[in-house]
Input
Amino acid sequence: MTSELKPKIVVLGAGVAGLTSALLLARTNLYDVSVIGKFLPGDLDIEYTSPWAGANWMSFVKDDEVLERYDRITYAEIARLAKEHPEAGIWPKKVIEYVRADDLIKNNPLLGGLLDARPWFADMTPNFKQLTPAEMPKGYVQGITYDSYCFNPLIYLPWLVSQLLSHGVSVRARTVSHISEAFAHHASGQPAHLVVNCTGLMACRLGGVMDDKVYPGRGQTVLVRNHAPAMYDITGCSDADDELTYIMSRPAGGTILGGCYQKDNWNATPDPNMAQRIIRRCLEICPELESEGKLDIIRHNVGLRPSREGGPRVEKEKREEGWVVHNYGAGGAGYQSSYGMATHVVELVGEALAS
Output
């Protein structure tokens, strides 16, 4: 089918959700796809979540078959990419997770399957193992380890763009204030048949969407040049209920130290006191981070996770202008669920255009 005859689709949003959705749609060779976004890879802005993400696969899903499917599909695809496309910036890395006694008692819903001795992905991830007390630091009552992956967003997002360009997809900077405007921004100059809405956190402000269930989950991290031997995750911390402890080593060097999850907090300025607490907690679980007795700090980061009450919105909607397929609200799971959510988008686009 020539591009003139293919249904025209505009993907609104150029974060990991939008770029991945566009790529899977383009791979079908059934659609003429264009991507527009207020921000593009290379931009750094507090409204543009994807560059600030820790960006790994460390599932916290519990008792949700839809979200499990998203994570399962994504794990298989990034395992393939890590092997076949090392230039994509995806790195195989061992995960070590520890559970504190207090968190076992609280059963914090944010922690999901991390509190299960044998979570749903145990039979899927290579080298899954339950840790014995002798294998954990003092003060932890449960632990697991398995093989997973970490992304470097500053490499991976431009790689996604390169893949889109190789499929003939236009990627352009455009700002729209209402979802209906996106129909007029296909690269062909013709009206789009369908829009895929991947506006993330800004779905709460986009005209025609204005989703009041969407909120920022503020995260603060410290990027250092030091290297960690694994990715670490702790179920909570004693400093504050909304603070977390995690370590993510990245492809091409550098390690992310985190963090926090502060609901409805839009503040883009790093808190120096929190940064010190983050560093202290990370060194307690991974003293190997310090080389020659110090941390080599590159940058203090703040990102706003595009979270949503009730979970992500992946569904189709018939509007006067045409069909819209929504894909936003993944919160902290944007990368680890990206291919699964985009696969769902492709299914919904097929259903919408067939109708």
